[in-house]
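Entry for the shared binder. Reason: the reviewer on the internal report wants the predicted structure included alongside the sequence.
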Amino acid sequence: MIVMTREMIFDQLDRTIRKMRTIRMFQVLFDCAVVYGIICVIVDGTRVTLFNQTMVQNNAMIVVLLIGAIDLCLAVIRRNYRSTGMQLSQQFTGRLSDQEMQLVRALERF
């Protein structure tokens, strides 16, 4: 088992939170794409224009489902980062500094 110093834990936790923010940004993008795709499939008829491409409704539904699967994968990745961050934050011993406390609170918001 590797013993990590407070600085190493702080740096790793900071990197984990930055990765989670990036994943959240992509997840919001894919959430919007799923909503847009669902609206296009519902509103259009048998020929759907989705992301400036015209396709049959069944193909458009498959595209929306695949985008939804990507969104789900991003949610799982973010959850794994969060659990890793929680394990890292539990390694802090003693009284936390202000910066460390802010990182732990930022992690809890995710």
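Summary line for the report: The chain has a mean pLDDT of 88.
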